[in-house]
Design a protein that fits this description.
alpha+beta; PH-domain like; Porin; 13-stranded antiparallel beta sheet; globular; phosphoprotein; OSBP_sf; membrane; Oxysterol-bd_CS
Length: about 700
């Protein structure tokens, strides 16, 4: 039929972090139920570079953009593909889904359940089971079937019955018990001597045994899906194959993988009981709170993350953690060991990206649209260095839903004016807008204030909203970020999904921008941070745009932390500025007039943020919320920090469970849902617009 047509064409395929995306020629073979790809169309007569069985596969359009989609085969293989546009993606996705459904239904029809058959895993020997070994020529049936021997062509492969699945589950439970006994025996060995619990071979045995059990759990999950497809005739619409989570809680393995026996509730510190007993957030006042910057004091804390020794000491914990992870596994719901945490929340980390507020405020002082775009790029590239605390890659606290962070910065106007030079834009009297004066009606201050607020607006997926404004310069930035983290083998990748918008109200300009991906490399030794990916900055009104590439280090040679970019006028396609260098060291800007400017990020002055004292903060403000975890980390008491962190996470799970049972939606405090994004409830562009309207009416 027309719906089962064989289609072919070029798609981009994601290979790996080093190679990235590559064009490949794909062929959908409906008769065989295969998706094949070749290097190019000319090599189509040769052996395919790769083949996926589509029976039982899940075809998923990606939420990253409108061009990307994934093909998840029942075997566990995955192709991440990208079409040229949304229409082409829809064409491929619909044809792949039709083919997948057809061949999945064929499995159920061609392999009806047997009426009775005794089956025991104990009677199966791996040496007598050649039929379960994977070969490229196998059809889809073999991925869902378990038999004693390879059967002659034309004979049906026995399919497991529900009671057989119960038998399998029982045998796997026994195997899991034996595996736990093995781990316990290893961990009971002395810490020193001829054979210790930290012996590298024994650690590898622990990791391998755990990975084996995870693999068996995945296979069992596929068998359950196969049985469901037989009963219903096909996989239900929207079904996804979700891999089983590790049976052993990661939160219970902090020292050499051993479970920690936390004290009973009555013996817990008062601070832990307080963390668990804070009322449901929606029962607290969710009305936005106006923070008075005069109550904020200059931050004097200096939590540098320079503890390199802890990583080596906890090597066994990392090995144990790795044994429970799979390539590409989403780490959103994985509880990571406490010792790898930074002493700040992710919301505060976003605030630290604003540590050069003088450069931020100077953007709007550019005398032309070209200069303002270049200034924004300069500010953007200088923000990441201070956002990282030290060279070691540690993870900030995962914000709890409803958590907020407030701070501000003050800069002498003379400093910003000196930076702006003669480019300060003059405003005619007709363009001037009188903003509401402060309550005390005080005289004009000799400094600029940049105010910042962030809120965790969603838990699953984890989405943060943040907003900053400088009222005196009529500029503000609003952004929302969804952090998606994945396990990549010897590194962890974090994708920042979302968008930010900078508003320069006196020019009527909006600059949209995105954030690069971040990677924690060498997680078995001394982990370090690397940024990667391409980001774009656009201003639709002026027609200027910037393209910035954060380059990951090649496997051989190459520099670390390299970044390149260019600013251009889209109408004429003229490049007006080029930038190159390292995002945490020295940047070189070359302008169209031939001038060159060097920015040494290590020598840039950092403006300390101003934060309210803990006693004046609300119970869900970041520093007060995490204060006991932070204090324990400062004291080097990992066990105590873990206990406090566990109490906060358990409270969040209980609250989420209660909301689900009562069907109570979460109510945010400072940010409102706006389409796919989140917007601050009282942005400056509304305040300025209201002030302009009021002035017009009074005139």
């Amino acid at each position: 039929s027309d719906h089962m047509e064989n289609i072919c064409g070029y798609l981009m395929k994601y290979t790996n972090l080093v190679t990235g995306w590559q064009y490949r020629y794909f062929v959908l073979n409906n008769d065989a139920g295969l998706l094949e790809y070749f290097v190019n169309e000319q090599s189509r007569h040769l052996k395919p570079r790769g083949t996926l069985q589509l029976a039982g596969a899940v075809i998923s359009p990606s939420d990253e953009d409108s061009h990307t989609f994934t093909v998840n085969a029942a075997s566990g293989e995955q192709y991440k593909l990208r079409a040229t546009d949304a229409k082409e993606r829809q064409h491929w996705v619909s044809r792949l889904q039709i083919c997948t459904q057809h061949h999945t239904e064929a499995i159920g029809k061609n392999n009806p359940p047997l009426k009775s058959r005794s089956f025991s895993l104990a009677s199966q020997g791996s040496a007598n089971s050649p039929g379960v070994q994977r070969r490229p020529s196998q059809n889809a049936v073999s991925f869902f079937s378990v038999g004693h021997h390879r059967l002659p062509t034309g004979k049906r492969v026995p399919i497991m019955q529900p009671d057989h699945l119960v038998d399998v589950r029982e045998m796997m439970s026994q195997a899991e018990g034996q595996q736990r006994d093995l781990i316990r025996s290893i961990e009971c060995l002395p810490a020193s001597g001829h054979l210790t619990s930290l012996d590298q071979d024994l650690l590898m045995l622990k990791a391998t045994s755990m990975a084996t059990m995870n693999c068996l759990n995945d296979c069992f999950h596929i068998l359950q899906l196969q049985h469901a497809s037989q009963q219903k005739g096909s996989l239900p619409a929207g079904t996804t194959i979700s891999w089983l989570e590790p049976k052993i809680s990661l939160a219970n393995h902090f020292k050499n993988g051993a479970a920690q026996n936390f004290p009973a509730e009555i013996n817990k510190p008062a601070s832990v009981r307080e963390e668990q007993s804070i009322a449901e957030p929606c029962q607290l006042t969710r009305e936005p709170e106006e923070i008075n910057p005069d109550e904020e004091l200059e931050d004097i804390s200096d939590d540098k993350e320079d503890d390199l020794g802890a990583v080596e000491e906890q090597r066994s914990v990392i090995l144990h953690l790795l044994s429970q992870l799979k390539l590409g596994m989403d780490l959103t719901r994985v509880v990571l060991p406490t010792f790898i945490l930074e002493k700040r929340s992710l919301l505060e980390m976003y605030a630290d990206f604003m540590s050069h507020p003088d450069l931020f405020v100077a953007i709007t002082a550019g005398s032309s649209a070209e200069e303002r775009m270049i200034r924004f790029v300069e500010y953007y590239l200088t923000s990441f260095h201070e956002g990282r605390k030290g060279a070691i890659a540690k993870k900030p606290y995962n914000p709890i839903i409803g958590e907020t962070f407030h701070c501000s910065w003050r800069m002498p106007k003379s400093d910003v004016a000196a930076d702006a030079g003669t480019n300060s834009s003059a405003q005619s009297p007709s363009e001037q807008v009188t903003l509401p004066k402060d309550p005390e009606g005080q005289a004009e201050l000799d400094y600029y204030t940049v105010k910042f607020v962030a809120e965790q607006v969603s838990h699953h997926p984890p989405v943060s909203g943040f907003y900053a404004e400088c009222v005196e310069r009529k500029m503000c930035v609003n952004a929302h970020v969804w952090t998606k983290s994945k396990f990549l083998g010897m590194s962890i990748g974090v994708t920042m999904v979302g968008e930010g918008v900078l508003h320069l109200l006196e020019h009527g300009e909006e600059y949209t921008f995105s954030l690069p991906c971040a990677y924690a490399r060498s997680i078995l030794t001394v982990p370090w941070v690397e940024l990667g990916g391409k980001v774009n900055i656009n201003c639709a009104k002026t027609g200027y745009s910037a393209s910035i590439n954060f380059h990951t280090k090649p496997f051989y040679g190459g520099k670390l932390h390299r970044v390149t970019g260019e600013v251009k006028q889209n109408m004429t396609n003229t490049v007006v500025c080029r930038v190159q260098g390292e995002w945490n060291s020295v940047l070189e800007f070359t302008y169209s007039n031939g001038e060159t400017k060097y920015v040494d990020l290590t020598k840039l002055s950092v403006t300390r943020k101003r934060v309210r004292p803990l006693e004046k903060q609300g119970p869900f403000e970041s520093r007060r919320l995490w204060q006991h975890v932070t204090e324990s980390l400062r004291d080097g008491d990992i066990d105590k920090a873990t206990e406090h962190k566990r109490a906060l996470e358990e409270r969040q799970r209980n609250e989420e469970r209660l909301r689900a049972e009562t069907e109570t939606p979460w109510c945010t405090k400072y940010f409102l849902k706006d389409g796919d994004g989140w917007v601050y409830h009282k942005p400056l562009w509304k305040t300025v617009s209201a002030a302009q309207t009021q002035q017009t009416d009074s005139n």
